[in-house]
Amino acid sequence: MIETRDGLPxxxxxxxxxxxxxxxxxxxxxxxxxxxxxxxxxxxxxPDNLMARCLIGYLxxxxxxxxxxxxxxxxxxxxxxxxxxxxxxxxERSHVTALGMWVAExxxxxxxxxxxxxxxxxxxxxxxxxxxxxxxxxxxxxQMRDSVGARLGAYAGHRLEGYIEGMYAFGLEEAxxxxxxxxxxxxxxxxxxMDLWAIHAVAHVMQMQGRVDEGMRWLQGTRSQxxxxxxxxxxxxxxxxxxxxxxxxxxxxxxxxxMEIAPAVQDDFYLDLCNASSLLLRLEAAGCDxxxxxxxxxxxxxxxxxxxxxxxxSLHYLMPLLKTRSKAADxxxxxxxxxxxxxxxxxRVVRDxxxxxxxxLAALNAGEHARAAALHxxxxxxxxxxxxxxxxxxxxxxxx
Length: 400
Description:
With about 400 residues, the protein is an all-alpha fold. It has helices spanning about 15-30, 35-45, 50-60, 65-85, 90-105, 105-120, 125-135, 140-150, 160-175, 180-190, 195-210, 210-220, 230-245, 250-265, 270-285, 295-300, 310-325, 330-340, 345-365, 370-380, 390-395, 395-400, and strands at about 1-5, 10. The protein has a two-stranded antiparallel sheet. α3 (about 50-60) packs antiparallel against α4, α14 (about 250-265) packs antiparallel against α15 (about 270-285) and α15 (about 270-285) packs across α17 (about 310-325). The chain is globular.
């Protein structure tokens, strides 16, 4: 057995595996593009490394689509087979259990499991980041804040302290504490200038406070720090576009969309399409003709009409399908209705909230404004349950 820098036990017999796993986790916390490369190298050196393979499982679930969900299930089955043969430390086995809960869509149990793991392994930053993400898409901003806040003191002086501060900043912002959110976010960026999540938290504060000029300066002033980032950097472009939109500069919004946001959609990652779909709707609401820009989005969305992974993503896939009058919109609607009958966390969200949101989008697209307004009132107070941020969800109020 070997240990990571934080004393987390690994069953690997490859001496370099511990430091390499530390590097992979720090890369992921920083939203860097080299995370997959680091993990692949771990598996070249140590093909049976349980934590590297479990991390791949988490990343495939985070992709938020059906194909990657199936891949995560296959990875989990292989990991369970290893564990049943006696492989793995207690920490590694806890992560394999977590992946199994995620694959089974038992989100409530998964949240409790990660909280328990963190009580046992307080420096398990991977569990803390997964918990942060899961609370985000559970629509629970208070717990997103408090789960990190409860562990913040333990990271004082720790090499990862800045990343934990950045997570806490975003939780504070979503919970409405903008002053503290900005303070922690700026401190996090000062420690780790390439921490896109922390940069993003400060941008959220400025957007929620209507600080348009400051928000543009903040993002434009940090652009050189995005270079090593993964696709999340395009979400920062989306935020920059919202500031331009608030300033009434539709020409600049279209420029950022065409040069950065639209090309990213071809990577077929759900967040890129969410950025693009929501921005086009906002532009149309501002009176802008977006011409043929919906069509490439619809072509990507058509690949995901049978996804039942992430409610937030599916609703954004529906937008371009409705706009282009694609028959695939009906298939996605049918998927949502089937999904609503499942006894999973996301299935319940579809049944209680997302079916009305989907019907609202369809009514708006058909020009049935009175029906759309009535539907908007039915889901408005529970909209947080679809996940996403306040900034992302405000779209549904803007277009109502």
